[in-house]
Design a protein that fits this description.
The chain contains 2 helices and 13 strands; from the N terminus they run ββββαβββββββββα. By secondary structure, the chain is mostly beta strands. A 6-stranded antiparallel β-sheet has the order 1-2-10-7-12-5, with no helix packed on it. It has a 5-stranded antiparallel β-sheet with strand order 9-8-11-6-13, with no helix packed on it. Strands 3-4 form a two-stranded antiparallel ribbon. It is globular and about 55 Å long.
Length: 184
């Protein structure tokens, strides 16, 4: 397993070992011992699966209180996956990092608690799976506008398909400070 640090140190790209032959391939999608050895110490309690078509953007989602770390990977298709640091007091506050995750490259993105997460589906029939370090709490469900000019994510899409919640989300500067996680 190889772990690559992104432009925001806490966000990591994981390239699991893949064993491939004429029959197909095998890989571990998660092994707590190996991840801890690479500095990823989140304890995951919930797995989610999302299905999207090309041109759909989901996010930027986060949960507060009880922020969630996430381990994201694609089972089918391809996405541009993004993490935004929204931790009060962080030197990287408001900065984003992103990478392409696909069924072909089999990479994963580790997003620590305190970050907002979003993705753009680059192909049809995207199946995106992610592990969460805390249970979903509808009262703590929060969102930041996908096209916030202060964050300035290079989505490569000007007119995405959005949920009503994502389309009407506040900009980061409009989010009350008591609705943002703190830097640990």
């Amino acid at each position: 397993m190889k772990v690559i640090v992104t432009s925001i140190d806490e966000v990591k790209i994981v390239a699991p070992d893949v064993f491939q032959d004429r029959r197909g391939f095998f890989m571990e999608t998660y092994n707590r011992r190996r991840y801890v050895d690479h500095g990823i110490d989140a304890v995951f309690v919930q797995d989610n699966l999302s299905c999207s078509g090309a041109g759909i953007i989901r996010g930027l989602h986060y949960q507060f209180p009880k922020p969630q770390a996430k381990l994201v990977y694609v089972i089918s298709g391809e996405v541009f996956d993004v993490a935004v640091d929204i931790r009060k007091g962080s030197p990287a506050f408001g900065r984003w990092t992103g990478t392409v995750l696909s069924a072909a490259n089999r990479k994963q993105l580790f997003i620590p608690a305190g970050f907002a997460h979003g993705f753009r589906a680059l192909s049809d029939n995207v199946l995106l799976a992610y592990k969460c370090s805390d249970f979903y709490n509808p009262e703590a469900d929060r969102v930041i506008r996908w096209n916030d000019p202060d964050i300035n994510i290079a989505w490569g899409e000007d007119a995405p398909v959005l949920s009503e919640k994502d389309a009407n989300a506040p900009y980061l500067r409009e989010v009350p400070e008591d609705c943002l996680p703190e830097m640990p």
